[in-house]
Structures are given as C-alpha cells and as structure tokens.
Design goal:
alpha/beta, D-Maltodextrin-Binding Protein, domain 2, 2 domains, five-stranded mixed β-sheet, 13 strands, globular
C-alpha cells in the first residue's frame, strides 16, 4: 500500500546497512503487522495484537518450526522497516502490486479481497461521476485504496487521507466524510458488523481494480531473501492442505477468504 518512490526506499536501505543492522538467525523470525486494521489485526486494550493476519503468521511460523515475534508497526513505515531489517517479513494485508515489487518481493497470495465504498444508509449515493462529485471520501493514506480513489475519482471527490482506517471510519461516523473506501472485508467485519455499523452500508457493490489492488494479498520480504520467500510459499500451501488455514478463516469469516486457486 506504500506509495513512496523507489529512490526514497533505496536511501532507507543504505541507512540500514550503514547502521550495522544484522540479519536475524534463520530459526528466529520477526513478523510485522499493523495492529490497526480489524479484523486482520487490531490492538486490544491489554496491548495484545490479534486478528486474521496474526493467526496466519503464527500458523506459518509453526509450520516452519521457527520461533517468531510479532512486531506492531504503523503502516506508513512498514516497508521502510523491512528494508532497514527491523523485521524479516510483513504479514499485514499488503496487496501485491507492481509498484511494491520494485522494492520488495512477495510470496504467493494468502487471501484476496475487493474494495468498496461505505456511507450512511439514509443518504443515497451512486458511484458515478455525478454521484461522487464533491463528496468527501476518506481513505487510509499510502494504500491501494488511496491509489484507486485518487486514480479513478481524484479530480471529482474531496479526498481525505488518514493514518489508519479506524480514524477514517470515525470521521465518517462524526459526519466529516460522506464515504470511506477500503478493503470490503475490513469494512464489513471491522466497521459494519460492529456497534453502530448498522447505520451504514456498502454503496455500489464490491470493486476489483487490478491496476491499484494488485494480484491478491501476500507476504512481503526483502528482495535478497529468496529462501525465506519460498519457505513461506511452502508453508502457505501446507497450512491450506492440512486444514489449518480453513480453521483460521472460519474464525473470522463465514466465506472463503482465499478465493480462486492460483
């Protein structure tokens, strides 16, 4: 979801190496999650991070027989943190896009999801040029959601960028936005199905836009980490074959999150 330039990210890598950051041991992995993207990851009042991404990360670590630490990382710095070697992989609902492939490598997908607009039920909105003209639309900044709205409707809507999806949703409830746009499953389970969410609805159905939303959701690793990427690929296939993936899926969603087989 990050829209930083390649040059800026390469500069971060150089800083990381010059700081003398060491590679972790092969049998100990640090996995970054966002901690603010329910139901995929959220931070409880106790400080514990839970969610689909977290459970998948732990299942993959178990399959790899690796000791893993879950690292809470704000979205804006999540790719730079990987390049600085602060952790070894990102399991944070990150879409596999061509832009990101310039600076990180991805595993095969571990799920896929369309996007959607959400607004109040008592205000009819059509997802058309006329229907969206002048509407205040909230997105999480540096995400595929920002890419989609900016690319397709940027000269029509009043685009508002937020540090987290939760803050965008909050401003929708406070009347500061007409719509939010995000991952459909995040909006459904992290907003519409929660307290007060029954006053809101999806506007215009689900939206798939490969140009911005990419090829599904994958695990990001550094471009020189081919061995780890392939270990994760094998582990993804293994937890799907064993039924562990399906058990985690059913804990959060009443439908198959993975989508069609690649």
């Amino acid at each position: 979801m990050v829209k930083r330039t390649v040059a800026a990210l390469v500069a971060v890598v150089v800083v990381g190496f010059t700081a003398g950051l060491a590679m972790p041991q092969d049998d100990a992995l640090r996995i970054a999650v966002e901690g603010a993207y329910p139901p995929f990851s959220e931070t409880l009042p106790s400080g514990e991070i839970v969610g689909f991404d977290v459970d998948i990360a732990r299942a993959l670590c178990a399959e790899l027989k690796a000791e893993c630490e879950i690292v809470d990382q704000a979205w804006e710095g999540i790719i730079p943190g990987l390049l600085e070697r602060k952790y070894d992989a990102i399991i944070a609902s990150m879409s596999i896009t061509e832009e990101r492939k310039q600076v990180v490598d991805f595993t095969e997908k571990y799920y896929e999801s369309p996007g959607a607009f959400v607004g109040t039920k008592d205000v009819a909105v059509e997802i058309t040029v006329d229907g969206l003209a002048g509407k205040a639309v909230g997105v999480q900044g540096a995400t595929v959601s920002e890419c989609y709205v900016e690319s397709n409707w940027g000269d029509i809507v009043d685009l508002k960028r937020y540090d987290t999806q939760e803050n965008a949703n909050l401003d929708l409830t406070l009347g500061r936005l007409d719509l939010v746009f995000a991952d459909l499953f995040t909006l459904t389970d992290g907003f519409l199905n929660r307290e007060g969410g029954d006053a809101y609805e999806v506007k215009g159905g689900s939206i798939a836009d490969r140009a911005c939303m990419g090829e599904g959701i994958g695990i990001a690793v550094r471009q020189d980490d081919d061995v780890l990427r392939e270990r994760f690929n094998a582990a993804i296939r293994a937890i799907r074959a064993s039924g562990v993936y399906q058990e985690i899926n059913a804990k959060y969603f009443p439908f198959d999150l993975y989508g069609a087989a690649p």
